[in-house]
Specification:
- It comes from Biomphalaria glabrata (Bloodfluke planorb).
- This is Myogenesis-regulating glycosidase-like isoform X1.
- It holds the Pfam family Glyco_hydro_31_3rd.
- By secondary structure, the chain is an alpha+beta fold.
- The protein is built from 12 helices and 41 strands.
Length: 690
Amino acid sequence: MLQYGRVLKMSSTLNYVFALVGAVLTLSILSGIVYHVCPNHTGQWSYKTPEADDIVTTLSVGPWARLTSSSSGLELTAKERFTDSKLPVRGYLGRKKSGHNMVNCKNKKDGLCFNRKDGFRLEVFSSAIKRKPIRKVKDLDCITISWEPPANSSIKETPEDCFDLSGFHWFGGFEESCQTWPMNGYNINSSAFITADSYMGRVFGSVIEGIFLSSSGLGIIVEETTPLYVSINQGGLPHLCLKGKVGEGTPFFNVTKPFLQYDVCLSANVLTLWQGISARHIPTPAFAPSFEVIKRPIWCTWAVYYDKINQSIILDYAKSIRAHNLSVSQLEIDDSWTLHYGDFNFTTDRFPDAAQMIQNLTDLGIPATVWVHPFFNKDSKTYQLLKEKGFLVKDIDSDNPHSVSWWRSKNESGILDVTNPDAVQWYLDTLNYLKVTFNVTSFKFDAGEAIWYPGKYKVQNPVASPNYLSSKYIDLALRSDMNQKRQEMRVGFRSQKSSLMMRIIDRESDWSHTLGIKTVIPASLVFGMMGYPYILPDMVGGDGSPDKELFIRWLQVSTFLPVIQISNPPWRFGDDVVQLTRKFLQLHEDYADDIFDLALNAIKTGEPIIRPLWWIAPQDEDALPIDTEFLLGNNLLVAPVLEWGARSRDIYLPSGQWRDENTGEIVQGGVWLLNYAVPLEVLPYFTKIA
């Protein structure tokens, strides 16, 4: 075995004994706690401790939780067998001061109740009494925390519960424009936790799940119908805060009363925590995408042509792909193949014979897919048809279509009512018409977020949360191509079972952490954590005009992700880039069987294809926060270059023996490789061999 010459720094965790079977979990459950930030603004919690003459009562809930009640509030700690010398995880429930009384919970075998003077009722009980797991659960103990308002109350929001983020790494379940891993660095004011368009500057993105995990082994899982508002580090304090909020000015306008319910779970470490929460809460996919789209890249017209497409441009593009001997699974015909947004016919002025065009693509061995969405602009023929059929979302107080704005229309569009089975069937029949008439193979589904339903509106079958409108859109998308399974989606909420290729929102063509290349790995890790394993990163190089170096480094980032998507063609940058593109596409193809095996494994276990380093080293303090490396399965570590001009980078290898696939050298893990050489043509990746 060779000792790698660059191995200079040993992992700080080799001698660290992490025993979260022994970690202190301190959650101060306060109905009216007095707290403040220390004068030095370090962001640490300070809270009022019980006075000497306080009457202190201690009771247990579930297998690990212990509640202590005093005049200062309610403190929740773990029993002694979970204690550890590390900084306790703390949470504070009910931040506004209000007296409380402890009472017995009726009809609950293992729970406590607290009544506040303002009428709110807090219940804390063992989750097992209410919930059956989706799959077999091991090494996970949970309690449920629930706030309910008083009957016949006009109150519109619950008390706010906050958890201290400091001391551990936290990982959150939402897409975000400045995607980070972990999430401790976010600054998010209290915002509605609904699916939205992070590319358009919204706080939370297209794919969200109310799941928050800590490296301490503590997890929070919010009940999915909760009218949830979330803040992170608001006011400069390191807090994750949750509350329920309804009424005017919220997307939960049709929810009659605020409530907040979530589980707090404890496990040995972050990996066993994720495994337990996944088994308890996250459905597995019903299907895997087509092997062809995993094996070979999708090519798309968007970034290279935007909406300036026509029949000859698309055919020339396809011929160039073949002429440069580049692989392709399908070609997506993106924006502007129709005359009006919402119609479903190729516009004949730019596509005089669309059926022949697609036949020509088929002759080249390239299936064609088209871009679709749920919007119907008022100048389209389809808008009037759907208005008459009642298939569009309606105004709250009439049967008129509810006017919506999207990036191709300002308040001059309607949106499909995905709760109406007849409307959904009409949409599916229309997509099938494209298959039959033009030989379209599948579809790129855009939008679908709850944010596109503004103000007050009504649908045929009301849903408990606007996020379920996204879920229903995904159900529709799945049904559109049940045979080949080549469709792509970009939105998700409780949609794991129906999801196939899940596209990360559009990226900018830059090196930044704001929709740039640095967000691709964090977004991929977050998607996997949320239960969406079939990750489709956006176009190589982003949506703009990348330079040569950015294109190459982005291609390297994408090489070991489940699916590759290209728009800007490599021949724009010269023959050397074409040759490198062939090299990395072939490398991806060499691992396609492994990727597909992991895709099938996700159906059984829910495990992500792309995994954080802590997946194989959950107690390794060096591995926990790394966001510039990832694992494909358990045994392939990838460390792409994400900095402009970089020709070296530091790489961390967790414990074990690793083979450097660029040099063949064997490296003993638990080390940093400092200044690892990364010429432009090199993608560092390592196979774990022991």
